[in-house]
Input
Amino acid sequence: MKFKMLFWCLFLLGISFGVHSQPDSLGFISIDCGLPPNSTYVDKITNLTYVSDAQFIDTGMNHNVSGVYITSGVSKHYYDVRSFPTGPRNCYTLRSLTAGSKYLIRTTFMYGDYDGLNKPPIFDLYIGVNFWRRVNISDASKLYIAEVITVVTNSYIQVCLLDKGQGTPFISSLDLRPLKPSLYPAVANASVSMSLHRRLNAGVDDSVLVRYPADPHDRMWEPFNNPGDWTQVNTTSSVQNPPNDMYEPPSAVMQTGSSNDPGYQIRFYWLIGAEYKSPSYFVVLYFAELLEPPPPNPNPDPKKQPKKGSDSTNNTKQFREFTISINGYDWYASSVVPQYLMTSEVYGYTQTTTYSQYNLMLAPTDNATLAPLLNAVEIFVVLSTADLPTDSGDCMFLFFLRSLYLAIAP
Ligand SMILES: *[C@@H]1O[C@H](CO)[C@@H](O)[C@H](O)[C@H]1NC(C)=O
Ligand SMILES: *[C@@H]1O[C@H](CO)[C@@H](O)[C@H](O)[C@H]1NC(C)=O
Ligand SMILES: *[C@@H]1O[C@H](CO)[C@@H](O)[C@H](O)[C@H]1NC(C)=O
Ligand SMILES: *[C@@H]1O[C@H](CO)[C@@H](O)[C@H](O)[C@H]1NC(C)=O
Ligand SMILES: *[C@@H]1O[C@H](CO)[C@@H](O)[C@H](O)[C@H]1NC(C)=O
Ligand SMILES: *[C@@H]1O[C@H](CO)[C@@H](O)[C@H](O)[C@H]1NC(C)=O
Ligand SMILES: *[C@@H]1O[C@H](CO)[C@@H](O)[C@H](O)[C@H]1NC(C)=O
Ligand SMILES: *[C@@H]1O[C@H](CO)[C@@H](O)[C@H](O)[C@H]1NC(C)=O
Output
């Protein structure tokens, strides 16, 4: 507890110094770490303005990645990094936030051999004093993304990189996006955060990344395909979300999905990684029917008109219904019948498993004639936030010491 208090005090001291910076008109903060001080530019894909990180941190060094890693598919914010060769803990401070509000915070990393050592590091991320996740950079050209949904307790938040003695921590970009309180209600208050494991958009080509402005919340939806097995289903009609939707998937994501041949299942799995201490998962599955329902009795033949009272439309040719199981148990109690061009979501925690992986299966029911259709998936790791000290008065002595040190330091 004493140790935790010390961290908390350092946290408070850390935010006592530095320059202020405002979120933009959307409430977004988009930071290109390693960009020269006072530089800004407009990102080509999103039209969002990225700013230098100099006003959010006063430690670390700027580097450009090696030119061989700058290719057309790599966004500009990956071209440079800030690295932290000194100090066990280096933190960015994001200010002018609304205490008690919910935010999405995203960090990205591309090593790109910026230091010429060809030694990708392993380090830890913290939100303030709370462990978020480990980052294991094993491929110099790979783009790594860490994202968390969290409620801030103050008007600022710190994102910290901790040196584990396994290489120098570095960072390429840092984004903050505000979320309405009604979104992701599992993150009810500051005691629970959710770290993104995967956010997948089924049924699009591998080059398609959906984010802002198609998603007003600027979530990044990665393409999800299993080409040998799955078929792409898509529509040009937009998909509506129900009123008061808690997840608000963008239509661009819902308009595509993955299915299979009739009678077959949709299966995928995820492995329990070493990035978290003991992960427990929260999963959101997104569904919408994309195939137009068959027209009722298109060419009525008077002689073959069904008798009054009998079923005049036979939709069995196009009936989609499926169940959802994880590691063999029924994860969702009922079956799912996706509604035409209307989003529905099935969400919840997973049971802890003794396996090293989770196997999710959408299986057609006996009376279904179409295979399951999956439009999108989000998988989160649930983080329980450690108790924060409520009284910052204990920090005054340390604050005094630091002031003294600053006064006498050469
Ligand atoms: C950045 O801008 C601020 C205020 O406009 C100025 O005081 C500072 O000298 C600038 N820094 C650099 C490195 O240009
Ligand atoms: C970005 O801005 C340019 C010029 O204002 C505009 O032509 C383009 O459509 C915008 N792109 C997006 C994704 O909003
Ligand atoms: C990175 O490259 C840009 C030019 O592309 C240059 O202006 C900048 O000074 C370089 N930064 C470092 C840290 O070398
Ligand atoms: C880091 O990732 C690499 C490649 O995936 C893996 O071989 C290695 O075991 C990981 N290290 C740790 C400490 O997780
Ligand atoms: C935070 O939300 C959880 C879940 O809704 C609830 O159990 C807990 O009491 C809340 N904590 C506070 C401090 O409001
Ligand atoms: C729609 O699906 C078809 C295959 O069924 C595919 O060829 C096409 O590229 C898809 N279109 C989009 C926009 O994803
Ligand atoms: C609907 O048509 C299918 C064949 O396409 C048939 O097997 C089924 O019995 C029919 N159902 C009804 C209620 O007519
Ligand atoms: C289809 O069959 C399942 C059982 O396999 C049943 O629960 C469901 O109600 C049936 N749906 C319809 C529309 O008949």
